[in-house]
Amino acid sequence: MRAAVLKEHSEVFAEGLPRRYPNLPLKEEPLDLEDLPTPEVGPNQVLIRVKACGVCYTDIDIIEGRVECSLPLVLGHQIVGRVEEVGFETKGRVKVGDRVGVAWIGWSCGTCRFCRSGLENLCSEFKGTGCHINGGYAEYTTAYEDFTYLIPSEGGLEDYEIAPLLCAGAVGYRALKLADVRDGFRLGLFGFGASAHIITQVVRKLYPSVEIYVFSRSEEHRDLARKLGAEWAGHPQENPPKKLDRAIDFTPVGEMVSRALELLERGGKLVINVIRKQTPTNLDYVKHLWMEREVKSVANVTRKDVKELLSIALKNNVKPEVKTFKLEEVNKALKLVKGAKIRGSAVLLI
Ligand SMILES: [Zn+2]
Ligand SMILES: [Zn+2]
């Protein structure tokens, strides 16, 4: 089968630059296109013929070594495909021919205190799809049956529209839940890529009275934000007309944390929806935290988050804006994602 494989981290590190702050263009061709044997389906697993796979900023974090994964590796954790084969010891929940999705949570132990309390995203044995388990930048992939999501074929959304919901949507939705948004609140979104543009649509459906303020350096992204129903969109250095009750930071920029906190109302809360920041975050207690302002990060995603987001999206016709690429164009897609040059989400059609 055709697959895009990560064999080594970006050359940025060979130049002796600090791993956390590579703020440099992506290596020209970070993934190699290869012919690999079709994976063998193991116990409790299913084999999936991949149809679409979303490209996520986390893939850049993996390529550049900020997120540790096992190499060589097939990336890709927003997978939509059809079940081709079911392995031994599966429960019969999914059948050959079913349309299924696979998200970042590829496996968790199910027995630790985090897993038992609904926080499987914090499981210390957590395995990420396209990180500890080969992912969907390939014609076929295997996934644990319990970590697949059945998606109705007549759901109204195409495979390439479902794909971005599985990480950009689901993790953004987790951030939204952690932000504890309520009717009438003013919500700030910092950065307007794949995740924020889905979450804007979700907020518009679930909390029509919430005012959305979007901060982005890209005029094109600010336009999209207004089109999707944001009340206000400006440059991160611009001051919004009102203070924010809640904020979600989607950017890899460390300084955005202090900027968002500065704009929070008393008692406000900031949720940071990124795996790694690429520049330092400096906080001043009085300026950024005093008056009961809160900060929280988002780590991974639970199956419940994915299921809820998929159901909200299918019910309310939440539709990501998508730019599609062929598998052979994966390196081009990654480069555009790194440069925040995609309007909405980038998805590989396979
Ligand atoms: Zn992701
Ligand atoms: Zn666990």
UniProtKB/TrEMBL annotation:
Which key words tag this protein in UniProt? Metal-binding, Oxidoreductase, Zinc
Sorted alphabetically, which InterPro entries does this protein's record hold?
A: ADH-like_N, ADH_Zn_typ-2, ER, GroES-like_sf, NAD(P)-bd_dom_sf
Q: Which cofactor does it need?
A: Zn(2+)
UniProt-recorded Gene Ontology molecular function terms: alcohol dehydrogenase (NAD+) activity; metal ion binding
**GO terms under cellular component:** cytoplasm
List, for all copies, the residue spans of the domain called Enoyl reductase (ER): 27-348
Family recorded in the similarity comment: Belongs to the zinc-containing alcohol dehydrogenase family.
Query: Could you tell me what this protein is called?
Result: Alcohol dehydrogenase
